[in-house]
Design brief:
mainly alpha; 74% helix
Length: 164
């Protein structure tokens, strides 16, 4: 399972980078067209909004999977090891609940937005918001893998278990 998650994370990293580059080049093209020709492509702002949403969620999922997201651990770092592990486990469980909520609500929003096209081209905005449930599902799978791995390691190592 670890290899599958690593493959997914590396793919998300590539997708996120390519989407960001695409946004950058589309805006450069749009600026050049406006400057040199006096007009621009009207569909670019809507298309880059779609790309931006996917970039944010794929990048967030990658960072979550690599444990590179921001963590406020001022109080946690002052706790004893046993309490620290328990709190981290509880936080992981809350994150799993949050991911489930994001999946359910993300599907609802995506379905609703499928009836609403972008302003400048006839394409449902739901495809942009589909990033929410898809990436939340991936983060949920990662969370489940982490929690089960922690429980297995804890059972094997007992009190000496060190969370990575």
């Amino acid at each position: 399972m670890k290899k599958v998650i690593e493959t997914i994370l590396n793919t998300l990293k590539l997708i996120s980078g390519l989407l960001l580059l695409t946004i950058f080049f589309l805006y450069i093209i749009n600026i050049a067209l406006r400057y040199f020709l006096g007009n621009s492509w009207l569909w670019i702002p809507d298309f880059t909004r779609l790309l931006f949403i996917w970039t944010v969620f794929t990048g967030t999922t990658y960072m979550y999977g690599k444990k590179g997201h921001l963590v406020m651990d001022f109080f946690v770092s002052k706790m004893r090891d046993k309490r620290k592990k328990m709190l981290r486990f509880i936080i992981d469980l809350f994150q799993m609940v949050l991911m489930m909520i994001l999946i359910i609500k993300g599907i609802e929003i995506t379905k609703t937005r499928m009836r609403i096209p972008f302003a400048t081209w006839d394409f449902p905005t739901g495809y942009a918001y589909a990033a929410v449930p898809i990436c939340s599902f991936i983060m949920l799978v990662i969370s489940i893998h982490r929690v089960t791995d922690e429980l297995i390691q804890y059972r094997k190592g007992g009190e000496n278990y060190e969370r990575s």
